[in-house]
Amino acid sequence: MIPLLISEAPPLRLAEPAAVRQPRLARVLREPILHFLLLGALLHLAGRWWFKPVVVRETRIEVPAAEARRLREVWAVQWHRPPSPEELQSLLDDYVREEVLVREAIAMGLDRDDDIVRRRLVQKMEFLAQGAPQEESNGEGVD
């Protein structure tokens, strides 16, 4: 018997006609990773369009010198003596804490559609109007 020689070479492939071969672009467009990336980009753009960007609020709270002076004066009137350094620091800490709460309440919209806030603003405006000098409609003063 004669031994058969088996070739390890890959089989010959016949050239495919151009019409049967898929273009490279068509193969790339069918890739699932491409679909995933395009869908992710679309969702990202839709999210940016739909949701408002986060507004960075001022995080630094400074106590104006006039406010510190007012706090000292109110303390002095109430207690008939100027505040000690520890008491003044406590007053300033309370002012900062109150300012934080006010800013957060405004950011959350707690000042809108509130009857009590509305009445207080009307009350303050009426108070200011009582102290303001009345103007004549014709521009002349009262004799």
Mean pLDDT: 82
> How would you spell out the order of helices and strands?
HHHHH
Instruction: Count the E strands.
Output: 0
Instruction: Give the helix proportion (percent range).
Output: 55-70%
Tally of helical segments: 5
pLDDT < 50 runs, ≥5 residues: 136-143
Radius of gyration: 39 Å
Please indicate the percent range of residues in DSSP E strands (runs of 2 or more): under 5%
Gap between N and C termini, in Å?
143 Å
Principal-axis shape equals elongated
Q: What profile does the largest beta sheet have?
A: none
Overall structural class, as computed from helix and strand content, comes to mainly alpha
Q: What do these coordinates show?
A:
With 143 residues, this protein is mainly α. Helix content is 56%, strand content 0%. The longest helix is centred in the last third of the chain and has 23 residues, at 85-107. It is elongated, with a radius of gyration of 39 Å. The chain starts with 23 loop residues before the first helix and ends in a 12-residue tail after the last helix.
